[in-house]
Every structure is written in C-alpha cells, then in structure tokens.
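Sample A.
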Amino acid sequence: MRQNLRVKSAGTMIQVIDAIKTLDNPTLSEIAKHVAIPKSTAHDHLTTLTKLELIVSTQSGYRIGARFLEYGGYARKNMRVYRVARPIVENLAAETGEHSNLGIEEHGRAVFLYKAEGEDAVTIDTHPGMRVPLHTTAMGKAIMAHRPRTEVEEIINKHGLTKVNENTITDRETLFEEFETIREQGYAIDNGERVERMRCVAVPIIGEEENVIAAVSVSGPMNRMNNERMKNDLPQRVKSAANVIEVNLKYSE
C-alpha cells in the first residue's frame, strides 16, 4: 500500500510539472485546479520541486527550471543519431534557406531532437524536446509509415488522432492509405496539418536492421513550398540528407 502511494505521488508530481509547462507561469491555485488536487497537496509538490531546483517560484507564479536542460541535453547528447545527423541537418537548412528538423518517435509521440534555421526561415513554435502527435507532422508520418501496422494501431489506440486544425488527418484508414503513398514515393508531406500555412517534406532514417530510427525534414511557408519545389527539389535534397545520415550511422563510431 505504501509503495502504491509513493507511485501515485510521483505521478501527481509529474502532472504538476506538466501543468506548469502547459499553463505557462501559473499560480498555486491554477495548478491545483488544473491537476484536480487540493491546494495543500499542490503546495507540497511545488515546495519539493523547488528544493530540487526543478522549478522556480516567481512573483507571478511558477516556471520550469533550467535544470531540465541538463537532463534534456544529456539525453540528446547520448543519442547517436543526433550526434551524426546534426551537421547534416544544419547543411540542409543552409542549402534550402528553410527550417530543417531531426525527429524521433518516443512513447508514441514525435519528438523534435534538433532544429536548424536557414537564412529565410520563418518563426514557428517548434523547439528541441517538443513532443507532438505523430500523425500531424511529415516526420511523424514518415516514421509511422515504416513501422508495422500493429505497432501503429497500438499508438493510435493509445493517443488517438487528435485534430489540431482543419488540415489534420483524423480518419484512420485515410492515414494508412497515405502511408502506402509515403512508402512508394520515399517521403512524407505535411500540408499545414499541425501549423497552418506551413508545408513540410520528411524522409525516414533507416537503421542497419531496416528499422526506422528517426526522420529528417525541411519545412517552410506555403508560398515558398510550391508544388514544383515539393515534388522535385526538396524531396531529393531531404532524401540525400537522410542517405548521408544512414551511411554515417553505419560506418562512424
């Protein structure tokens, strides 16, 4: 029983951290309401998190502390695909002038590992560590298309097909039909399915055992990502980048 209480308490603490991130500098009352716990319980968790230097108390509320950067930086640095792909992602951004991204799947979500900005890149909300629904991004769809259907079904059953905007694919069979197209052409496209008026091209990164381990992409505003560019220039550039990453993963230490 005591162990179950400790597990429940740890789960509540994570919910408190998520609330601080979601609500952006919330007060004690706002956190308690969001997590649906008494203010006294919220206060105890906030006090513990502050002592651990994981959050910071400000005049207006609470914010996530910089210590999380230490954990995130350590996690990313120890991912070989990040170390190998980073310079290639940077080159891709410089070549295209747009955003270039490296992403993975973790716990059924798409995670942005790295983002490089070209000279003409616009400002968008993505940042390293950001987690989004897989089906809403070209990178996520590129990864899902190369996973076994049973595995993808499990992810969808767990997380659903969240509708982010009017362009998001929320029908399961429509999504699986798109996966067939992705496998045939070798790349995935996102037509403003998470960020409106933005388009993206992504290619999976395949490991030695033919398993997809990540994806690389280029994204930009629709007025620059015209049909000609989306069908020829960008897919070839992103495919080339993915191929270089795959080769370097195989032969570099």
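Sample B, a different protein:
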Amino acid sequence: MRVVNRHKRIINQPKETVSQLFKTLATAKDQIWPSQNWPKMYFTEGLKVGSQGGHGQIRYTIIDFKPGEHIKFEFTKPEGFKGTHELNIKALSNDASEINHMINMNTTFKASLLWVFIIRWLHDALIEDAFDNVENHFSEEKIKSTYNLWVIILREVYKRKSFQIKKA
C-alpha cells in the first residue's frame, strides 16, 4: 500500500524564529516533541545524518538534515514500513512560516493493517500535539488538539508498552 500522510500548520512567526525552536528537537531541552504525552524521541548521536533513533516502537535513521530547514528520516521499524518521513520549515512571509511533516512510504500487507488501524491514528494525534507545542510557544492563547475516541482507546492499550524505550 502507498502511504502519503501530511500535516501542516502556519505559525505567525518568521522562519528564523521558528527554526530556533526546532534546534531543540530530541535534546534535553526539547520544546517541540510532546513527550509529556508520548514516548520521548531520541537519537544515538544527536541530530546528524546517520544517527539512529526513534520513539516508542517506531525506529528510523536520519538521512538528510539541514538545520533550520528540514530533517528527513528513513524508517527501520516497524517491519514492512519502507520509506521516509520528514519535517520542513518554510517561510511564507516576513512574519509567517509553515511547518509540515510528511510520511511517504510503501507498506507490506501486514504493515498496512498496522498503519490503517493503529499507527496512523496515533501518529496523527502525536504530530498535532507537537504542532500545538510550536504554536503555543509563540502564543498567549494556548491551544490543545483533542483526541477522538479511537485514539483514547489505543493510547490506553499501548500506554505501558509504548512509554518503555527499548533502544534498538
């Protein structure tokens, strides 16, 4: 199955300002990743090409990285996920930026079922939480995306398993 999954959000800040926030990704002072509600993101060698890491049961390797512009990962787990996901920052004007996250992959039959019924739902909620963190960093009025019932059930089922980081 071919999977293309995209999330984007406009942030009313210059690209340079938003880019500074993205430099904290997967560090001790991470201001983007919603680790208060999701498994923490980590990389064996920090944010650099070749570094391996992931979050929860998802694993990937950094294959392209330009600080302040984009970071691209290649999936290594779960089995059957063949492709990439990436995070990009684009200037829309002097006062607005767009952040976007895109998955572009092919999946085996078994991995397609995993994606359709479980991972896609959790992934979408996690990315929206991360984008909320970015937007809330620059805003007095805080927003919080809500989870649908299926995400609430899945999070409860996988909570113990997902929050245990097992480095591969």
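Observation for Sample B: The CA atoms of residues 45 and 51 lie 5 Å apart.
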